[in-house]
Amino acid sequence: MSKWGVTLGALVWVLGDGYRLEQPVGEGSSAMVFTARDPEGARVAIKVGRSIEARGLEKLSHEAEVMRSLAAHPSVLPLLAQGVLDAPLCGLPPGAPWLASPFHAGGTLTAWCRREAVTWSMVGGILRQVLCGLTHVHARGWLHLDLKPSNVFLGDDSGHPRAVLGDLGIARRRDTRPRQKTTSGTPAYMAPERFSGDWDRTGPATDLYALGAVSWRLVTGSRPLRASTLDEWRVVHEALMPAAFVPRFGVPEGLEDWLRRLLAKDPSDRYSEAPAALCALDALSGVEGELGMAGEQGTSTDGPGATLVAA
Question: Which end is more exposed in the chain, N or C (fewer Cβ atoms within 10 Å of the end residue's Cβ)?
Answer without folding.
Answer: N
